[in-house]
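input
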Amino acid sequence: MAYEAKMKMTDSSVFEFIEAVDSPKKREDAYRLLDLFTETTGLEAKMWGPSLIGFGSYHYKYASGHEGNAPIVGFSPRKAKISLYLDPGEPKWEERLKSLGKHTMSVACLYVNKLADIDLDVLKTMITESVAHMNEKYPSGVSE
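output
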């Protein structure tokens, strides 16, 4: 049976998704992130799956043969926390995290409660560096 990727770019409206966020504060933060990511990347926001706002895309292929597309960077204003999807393989990652502010992490995500908890200038730098690193890592696979 072929693997069907759950995260695909859709034609859903980014604005309708943000407007459906229950918490007014999370909704406000989502609009601020939308502006920040758009301005920083120069890329158009697209919905990926039902809940991720992504910018750009790249094609990956694992040694196992599994391959697909994913956003270069993105975010999701989830109920508990805001998930930030950046490139943790970027060389200055650890250094940037020290000055970002209050956050937690998993393997692939940074989580923040609210934007007031973090330094947005550091986040902009992390976005810029993530995009640049992904362009190096996937030179023929990164697009808008």
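quick obs: The radius of gyration is 15 Å.
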